[in-house]
Each structure stands twice: as C-alpha cells, then as structure tokens.
Design a protein that fits this description.
A five-stranded parallel beta sheet has the order 2-3-4-1-5, with helices on both faces. It has 15 helices and five strands. The longest helix is centred in the last third of the chain and has 19 residues. By secondary structure, the protein is α/β, with parallel strands linked by helices. β2, α4 and β3 form a beta-alpha-beta unit. The chain is globular.
C-alpha cells in the first residue's frame, strides 16, 4: 500500500483521509502485537503527512514522498531507545522536544515516530506530556507500542488510539503465497501465526525452528512438574537460549493452548497438529485448570521479559509459581 507492506488497509485509509481533509490529530498511539507491521503503518502515515500534494497524499511522486520512502526526510524524526539502555528514558524525549520546536523544513507537518513506546519511563512520559498538552500545530507524534495500558492515563487521554488487530487467515495465506511462493508449510503457518504476519517471517527465517519446537515441547512436563528441582531445569534452558526466550514462551503458550482445547473436548481446534500424541499426553495428565494457570504464569514471564528482567529469572519465577 503506497510502497509499504501494511495489512490494515481500511484503517490506514481512514487515517490518510484525515490528512487529506486536514483533520489529523497531533498525537497517535499505534497499538498491537509485535509482527503486525505497525512500524510500516507509522511510516506510511508519516509519508502522507509530509507529502506536498495535500489532496492526494501520499502521492508517491513528489520529492517529499521519495525522501520519506528512503527514510531520509528531515521532517520525519525517529525517537529510539539507546542500545545500551533497557528503557526509553527522558533524554531522548528532551532531544525530541528541542527538535519539535524547530519548524518543518518543507511542508506543514513534522512527524515524530516513537518506537517501543511501552518502554517509556514515567519521567520520559511526563516530559512528553508537556509538549502534547500544547503541541505546535505542525507537530504529529506517533507512539508505536504493543500495550498502551503501560502508558500514563494522562498521555493516553491526549492521543488517538489506533489498534492493530490480528489479520484474517486469508490475508496470512496470501502473504505467504506472495512472499514465500515455494514454502510448503502454508496450512501450518496460517494456523500457527495466529493472524500475525511477523510470526510467519520469524518461523521461515529460523533454520532451527523445528528443532526448537521439539525441545520446547519436551521441556513442558518439567514446567508443569510438582518437583521444584525441575523449575531450575526450565530456568537453565531459558538462560541457555535467552536470545530466543520470548519465542520459546510463545511456543510453550501454543502447546498449552492446544492441551487445554484437547482437555476440554475440542481436539479439532489444535494448532500443532504434528504433535498430537504429546499434546494428548499433556491433556490427560494435567487438568485444564493447571494448564490455564501455567499459561497465565508464562504470560507474566513474557511481560517481565519485556521489562528486561533476566530471562532465567522470568522462567524460574513462572516455573515455581506453577508448582
């Protein structure tokens, strides 16, 4: 769509039309799961805001559109977490505010894309609040995040919330067939991706995906075991694979979900159809309540991981809580 790989075309057209009518807001929150191409959507929206052909923005022909596409437009500013920092602190926000006071070089808008908005510290958000309470007319801020509830209510109340939801199976299937025409696992990927295109990319790009899936499935009984010693086995495994901890938690959650639907009499709803035998074993050995409790603890572990708590600590906390 206009040179960007986005999936929420109706949603984006609504935003673009607001720009064409000069009715856009000053602050937006683009919220949704990782892998839904929210950053691409933010780039497209920014492109429409800086386009010099107002009535048809983004025209894709003017110099501003070309610069936006090439990530070199001076009126599109990216606010990023410093690589050695676990959070998005106050200094990048102060730098953004200083930049914000400089009028646009070319057109009527200057756009600030704040990535990883979930990681904004309270101090950073309070500093940000000062500029969005009375923003320059030309400034537009886009906070890209997975969970807006982490943001202060005072920030959320001053922003237009734009929610990116999982897309349809047909959209995922079309994406796979177009992007990976030789991929043989289309049906599995449609189910496994749960409507998130980025999951498809991640799976296909991982050469050891099948091996990791099998290891994680074999690890689940240790997570669910009543023996507390096994909790340390789970923590050791997560620490050994800490770079993939988030993906491992997702795999565990998928398996637990399959075991739950099997335990509740809906085996036709499972996603990991090639692992039916072991999933049936989990469903027969543990109650749906136990499996659900384990899922809740893994979701908490994922949230802890997002806050840059040590991977092994998140796993140990989850495993011990399950027991």
């Amino acid at each position: 769509m206009y040179g960007y790989n986005v999936f929420h075309k109706k949603l984006m057209m609504t935003l673009i039309e607001s720009v064409r009518r000069n009715e856009n807001a000053n602050t937006y929150i683009f919220e949704g799961a990782e892998g839904l191409k929210k950053h691409e959507a933010a780039l497209l929206f920014a492109k429409s805001l800086v386009c010099t052909s107002t009535d048809t923005a983004p025209c894709c022909d003017c110099p501003a559109c070309h610069e936006a596409q090439g990530l070199s437009h001076p009126d599109i500013v990216f606010v990023e977490r410093e690589k050695d920092k676990a959070t998005l602190g106050v200094e990048p926000i102060r730098d953004m505010i200083t930049e914000c006071l400089i009028k646009p070089f070319y057109n009527r808008h200057k756009v600030f894309i704040i990535n990883e908005g979930d990681l904004l510290t309270p101090q950073a958000q309070n500093a940000f609040l000062k500029i969005i309470e009375e923003p320059p007319a030309y400034a537009v801020f886009i906070i890209v995040c997975t969970n807006s509830q982490i943001l202060l209510e005072t920030v959320r109340s001053r922003a237009v919330s734009v929610t990116f939801t999982p897309v349809s199976d047909n959209d995922i299937r079309e994406y796979i067939n177009t992007t990976y025409p030789d991929e043989p696992r289309v049906d599995f990927l449609v189910k496994y991706s749960m409507g998130i295109p980025g999951y498809v990319d991640r799976i296909i790009e991982r050469e050891d995906f099948d091996e990791l899936r099998e290891e994680v499935l074999n690890l689940l009984p240790r997570l669910l075991s009543k023996n507390k010693i096994h909790a340390f086995d789970v923590a050791d495994y997560i620490e050994e694979h800490k770079d993939n901890a988030d993906e491992i938690y997702d795999m565990m959650l998928m398996y637990l979900r399959d075991a739950i639907v099997t335990a509740t009499g809906k085996p036709d709803k499972i996603i990991n159809t090639d692992k039916t035998e072991k999933i049936n074993l989990l469903a027969s050995k543990y109650t749906a309540s136990t499996l659900t409790s384990a899922s809740d603890e893994l979701m908490m572990a994922k949230k802890m991981l997002e806050r840059y708590i040590k991977a092994s600590a998140t796993a140990l906390h989850a495993a011990l809580k399950v027991k």
